[in-house]
Write a structure and sequence with these properties.
By secondary structure, the chain is α/β, with parallel strands linked by helices. 41% of the residues lie in helices and 14% in strands. Strands 1-2-3-4-5-6-7-8 form an 8-stranded parallel barrel, surrounded by 5 helices.
Length: 276
């Protein structure tokens, strides 16, 4: 039986401590697979700081960690803006993040789809044109840097659903690109996470787990919302998912709630290892 690897995201620590402290806390707690949020004050991808990257790199090496990906905060950037200047800023931000990812030996750079127009749906076709061109620029940089893209669903983005992602990847010639499927992001738009996981199955690189109320965009501790984790666990078990699962939980006590989430997943039938 194939066993997935369970890791943890530093997003929950982003406003309370710097990346080095978060990585060390996670490593000390036994996590060996980490995803890093790249946003100030946690970790600033815009600034090339060799001292900081060496410190983080040393922690990764000391604890034998696997750094899955770097994420930019969606609140900082927009690849689908009607403003060329905003898009250029976002592209440059991703290019800097790719450089930081390469310095740290990350497996992927996580990219979202910019923001759709929430009130004027007919604008989204033009925004998609902008996004596709920006994404191609980032893809070229990522390929040259040897840090491939992993694409994530996002409830505010142009690629909010599993079907949106599939259409985009196939239409733009990125058919072999892996995907992060965030079940809370999917739940926020009313998508059944089991159906989304099933449709994206051949493309799954990482599954993000957190909880939330139906129809609300949250990343709450597991068991505090309405997501059916027993059904998700059953699917992953039945299909022998052997990829990466990352807990991405935002709370006042991130490490406590990450550990509680891992325990809850076990209770609901999901076997995993913390090994990298």
């Amino acid at each position: 039986m194939t066993i997935p690897v369970l890791g943890a995201h530093t997003f929950g620590f982003a406003w309370d401590c710097v990346a080095e402290e978060a990585v060390e806390q996670l490593a000390t707690a036994g996590y060996r697979t980490v995803q890093l949020m790249a946003t100030p004050p946690h970790f600033d991808p815009w600034r090339q700081d060799a001292v900081r990257t060496r410190r983080i790199g040393a922690l990764i090496e000391r604890y034998g960690l696997s750094l899955l990906a770097l994420d930019l905060a969606s609140s900082d950037i927009n690849l689908a803006s009607p403003s060329a200047d905003v898009v250029d800023f976002a592209v440059k931000a991703y290019m800097s993040a790719i450089d930081r990812a390469a310095e740290l030996g990350a497996r992927w750079i996580c990219v979202g789809s910019g923001r759709r127009h929430a009130l004027l749906a007919k604008a989204n076709d033009r925004l998609m044109t902008s996004f596709c061109a920006a994404f191609a620029r980032i893809h070229d940089k990522a390929q040259r840097a040897g840090v491939p893209i992993i694409l994530e669903n996002h409830p505010q983005g142009l690629l909010a659903s599993a079907s949106d992602i599939i259409r985009f990847l196939d239409a733009e010639g990125y058919g072999d690109m892996p995907v992060i499927y965030d079940v809370a992001n999917a739940f926020a738009i009313g998508e059944d996470p089991v159906e989304g996981l099933t449709s994206l199955w051949p493309r799954l690189g990482i599954v993000h787990l957190s909880d939330g109320p139906n129809g609300q965009w949250r990343h709450d501790p597991i068991g505090t919302g309405e997501i059916d984790f027993a059904a998700i666990a059953a699917l992953l078990r039945q299909r022998s998912y052997g990829g990466k699962i990352v807990l991405e939980i935002l709370s006042e006590r991130p490490l406590v709630d990450l550990d509680a989430g891992a325990a809850s997943l076990k209770e609901q039938g999901l076997a995993f290892t913390l090994g990298s």
